[in-house]
């Protein structure tokens, strides 16, 4: 299977090769319906919502930062602000996400971006043996062990999810 027919975005397939993760290209799963949201992805895969890894871009004092969060949780912007020592953290606009990562919202993978950014990974991801993340387009996902995901993304482990009521 070549990267072009695997379902992975070509740039993401190249990033997998550069990271020594070629074997993951063959494990990319493409779905006819979009897996743009965590709920759509979990339903298509048949896994728990928390096994989806969301790749979310925020702006910390105007500088893009990537936050990897489990699909069942929301990011607490105040915790991200404190973690980064920033004055203000907001969700990045769609054009900033595309400029920073090279991918559209709903298909942003955890690595293989156009621009190197700081990466935070919430510890909640480590509660699973395997998580699923976007493979560069809104119809494709790939499985990866959370510890490998954190290492390959160059992420700092943090606790930035909103407390549950």
Number of helices: 7
What is the typical, i.e. mean, pLDDT?
Answer: 90
* SS elements, strand count: 8
Structural class: alpha/beta
Low-confidence spans: 1-5
Largest sheet properties: 8 strands, mixed
Strand coverage percent? 15-25%
- Gap between N and C termini: 45 Å
- Written as H for each helix and E for each strand, in order along the chain, the element string is HHHEHEEHEHEEEHE
Explain what you see.
- It is a single chain.
- The chain is an alpha/beta fold and 165 residues long.
- The chain is 30% helix and 24% strand.
- It is built from seven helices and eight strands; from the N terminus they run H-H-H-E-H-E-E-H-E-H-E-E-E-H-E.
- It has helices spanning 3-6, 10-18, 22-25, 38-45, 77-84, 94-101, 146-153; strands at 29-30, 52-60, 63-70, 89-91, 118-122, 131-134, 140-144, 156-158.
- Strands 1, 2, 3, 4, 5, 6, 7 and 8 form an eight-stranded mixed sheet that branches.
- Strand 6 and strand 7 (140-144) form a beta hairpin.
- The longest helix has 9 residues, at 10-18.
- It is globular and about 40 Å long.
- Mean pLDDT is 90; it is low at 1-5.
């Amino acid at each position: 299977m070549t990267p072009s027919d695997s379902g992975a975005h070509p740039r993401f397939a190249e990033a997998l090769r550069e990271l020594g993760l070629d074997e993951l290209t063959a494990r990319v799963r493409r779905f006819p319906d979009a897996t743009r949201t965590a709920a759509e992805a979990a339903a298509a895969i048949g896994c728990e919502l928390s096994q989806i890894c969301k790749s979310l871009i925020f702006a910390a004092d105007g500088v893009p930062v990537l936050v990897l969060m489990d699909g069942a949780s929301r990011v607490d912007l105040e915790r991200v602000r404190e973690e980064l020592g920033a004055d203000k953290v907001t969700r990045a606009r769609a054009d900033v996400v595309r400029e920073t990562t090279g991918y559209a919202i709903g298909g942003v993978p955890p690595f293989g971006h156009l621009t190197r950014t700081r990466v935070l990974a919430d510890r909640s991801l480590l509660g699973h043996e395997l998580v699923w993340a976007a493979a560069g387009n809104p119809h494709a996902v790939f499985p990866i062990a959370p510890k490998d995901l954190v290492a390959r993304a160059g992420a700092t482990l943090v606790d930035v999810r909103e407390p549950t009521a």
